[in-house]
Design goal:
Blueprint lengths: L1 H24 L1 H10 L10 H28 L5 E6 L4 E6 L6
Antiparallel strand pairs: 1-2
Amino acid sequence: DMQRLFWMGVCAFGGAFMLWNIDNIFCTGLRTIRNALPAAVGPFFQLHAYWHIGTALGCYLSIVYQQYLRLVKLGTVDEYRLRWLAMGIIPYLDKDIKQKA
């Protein structure tokens, strides 16, 4: 689970950085495409917005990873469970109520 968290964070940041650079390099072409498409489809070509989403997700994953790592180092990781929301994209740590009641 820790490796998955780490690599998901790295990929979120890396993918966001890649999209942001594509947007910077091909901004004029992307703007032309956006203007030629129906208004409902145009936002999907706003790659800079995906930069913000990707970096936010990467930050969140990094925070959960660091929390998980701290629990491992303190030896209390067995008291918590790493759970996933949104089809396995959003992790969170949940206190295991079955442990040490």
